[in-house]
Amino acid sequence: MKKLKLFLIGILLSSSFAMFAQQTAKGIVKEKTSGDPLPGVSIIVKGTQKGAETDFNGNFNLPNVKKGDVLLFRYLGYASKEVTITSNFNLVVELEESSQQLDEIVVVGYGTTTVKDATGSVESITAKEFTKGNIVTPENLLSGRVAGVNITTSGAPGSGSQIRIRGGSSLNASNDPLVVIDGLPLSGVDLNSINPNDIESFSVLKDASATSIYGSRGANGVIIITTKKGRTEYTLDYDVQVGFGEIKNRVSVFNGDEFRNLVNTRRPSDAGLLGTANTNWQDEIFQKSVATQHNLTARGQIFGFLPTRLSVNFSEIEGNLLTSQFDRSNISVSMNPSFFDDHLKVSLNYNRAFVDNRSADSGQVNSALRYDPTQPVYDPTSPFGGFYQHINRTPGGILVENGTRNPVAALLQNNNNSNRFRQFGNLKLDYKLHFLPEVTATVSAGFDKSKEEGSFFSPLNSPANYTDLFVGGEGSFINEFENENFNAYLTYVNTFNKLKTDVMVGYDYQSFNSSGNSTGNIRNPNDQGATSYVNTPVVLVGFLARANLTFSEKYLLTLNYRRDGTSRFGPQNRWGNFGGAAFAWRMSDENFLKENEVISELKLRASYGVNGQQDGIAGDLYLDRYRFGNQNSQYIFGGNPIQSTIPSERSSLKWENTATIELGIDYGLFDNRISGSINAFQKNSTDLLSDAPVADASNFTNRVLQNIGDLQVNGLEFTLNADVVKTQELDWNINFNATYIDREIKELALGQDITTGGIAGGTGNFIQLYSEGFAPNSFFVYKQLYDTAGKPIEGAYADLNGDGIINTDDRYLKENPQADLALGFQSNFNYKNFDLTFNLRAQIGNYVYNNVNSSLAQYDLLQDNAVLGNVPTSVLDTNFQRTSDVILSDIYLENASFLRMDNITLGYTFDRPIKKFASNSIRLWAGMQNVFILTNYSGLDPEVFNGIDNTIYPRPRTFLVGANIKF
Question: Are 263 and 270 in contact (CB under 8 A)?
């Protein structure tokens, strides 16, 4: 009996031990909608530091787990999920996609954080939030999506963009943000050779605490691009789109009949120069375009251990200006294996791009406005390729009259081609030390190399005078560029009771080299001939450190420091120290808000930091440089004539510094159905780089690039994301953002104004000014006077200084190109298998100087040198006669506020149309780009570069159709 009792007690004890024994939890994590495995999902035992991560098949193993433990699953772009361990340790976990989650991973400089733990002003945009439409270059995926980010792109196919974050921080140096792709900092905004389909996400770093880790290059903000990676699961995607573009708007000029009447009335003596045709030259130089893009992507594991992604892209983009064409072919490879139980992670990315570009001279848009509408495009008797030209047949030969030449001929008879080969990539190794798993060592090496070969050619039957020394043009050029980067850093992550630490120290090295050559115009006997250049190499070196401290998951502190050196400056100014600090308080985790049914997230942020700026200037300005004088400037040395040399200007340059202070609020309401942020910031840039006057006899020129002043930028940003409706069948979410920016120059060298903003119409005219107390590029104009009927009086301006003389002292500063308020709105609507997306953008308070009207809309220009020339019909409103009398009038300064619908897209997805495959879908869609624009601006388009409209390449309206096929 006693033995039986001992036996039963043993069984009970064994059962108890088994019940409380720790086991291994394992399973798979899938995406709820598609059922696809999710790699890289973070799994943590809640309340501990124990955790794991899913492999590329979505599988995971987490040892030492007991019944009752709660596992927290987190993944970028998906709602976090908690699973309590019961008797089942084999789990199948499904995560649901979410538009805004606090645990989303955000890529920052040299590491990552989460939305919840971010202390600075950082915004992450993932693929599902990208701007849709006719996207040829990656930056347009962000257009209108991020508060404080303004992107301006011309209508030329494959053209680059001007990107400004919070208005920029400089005057004459670069205002471009630093762009980092997969850890490799690029030189400038060089993105048109990158396939947008390869982009996984953008992180936009805006405040100094976030950007100061990039030190001397962070003053204008940072855009971090992460590309798509490999997986072990095999998938195949094919995306195709076709676009049909057309430029609808025209500058209003006189047609043939109107022009004949105008000339007969105003210049009857020139009536004999009129023709009989009715030619709309704008219609002749613009064409309807067809653009196609093909993307083929394969993912899967090769050799049994190597998760890989291979992507191929072919884009053929026809421009809407005759002869313009942009063709691009891309191939990218990404491999992401891990070794030693995920202690060593390898990321290899390699991209190749081939870009063929035939550029059309956009200046011919201006020629189309000027050319005589009574003349035909073609003339069968013309010796110039059958194109009509204004000619005079003389005994000595055919003389081409002085004046504007046939714009159609100018486009079709000139071939400007360039072929660019670019390759870039990087190798990144992350090793979590076996003997000290809290420490991760990261090493990354990357490169970006390109070679561009171009040529220009115009035939022997191009227009020429019989007195010309040569006919047409022919030549070629080569440009090469190389960017190499190496960085290494150590990261230490650990938790001490309630204090979580994340510390990083590192080193960064980068070099830039460029060279090239040109033949010049080999048909021109007076051309300087072949030339070559090798730019002074630029080297950047940085030592960096960051500490993230979190106490009780509620109080967060981030400290950044970077010491940078650049070869651009002399030894005395070569090194600079930059840094920042940010504090955040997660109020919503305090007891007095924790159970609040309305406020689900509330975080207060404050930051301060200092960044530098040294881009946009040459690498040798601090050196003593000399140039040769002309051939007649010689001296005799040892009986031999020696050509003289002239010293170039010297610049003792140093860093531009930008200090930013910011206060921010991140909010979430109703279980984060509504979320967003509010930011208020002030940027103070000092030692601004600008080409400014110097005192007489103090240098070898009267203007030199120097550190000359201070600029202040004040701004407010507001962002709102809302899940308006979210049910099983209907999902509608919106994004709205608003940005207010005010820029003011606080100080310039010697208090002197600096002229800028050159314009067409006359010689040496400018229309903008840098002046203390005003915004950069403020317009510098005369105040127009009007008669009692409200008509402008030609050449009559207000005597603002009251001295009885109208001169430059009476010009005044009025408005500037920067919008006071920029707005963006995106709507994503999904019902069952239907999806509808559109984007709106607006700018309010921006002004544009209409240089088309100011330089062309005067009656004197009916005479185009020796021929007749057309003028805009706006001359009827002013009756102005001479350009020189009116070109600086404020009558040409217009409010260019606008509301634009960038795109609208409607799609339908067929789930598993091919039953043979377990997982496949086909999405068919149609859309329109540049849908409409509402504005009072009289020109073609109010969205111009730097506020001066001199007929930019117009933006077409494009109709799109496409398909997304997935297996």
Answer: yes
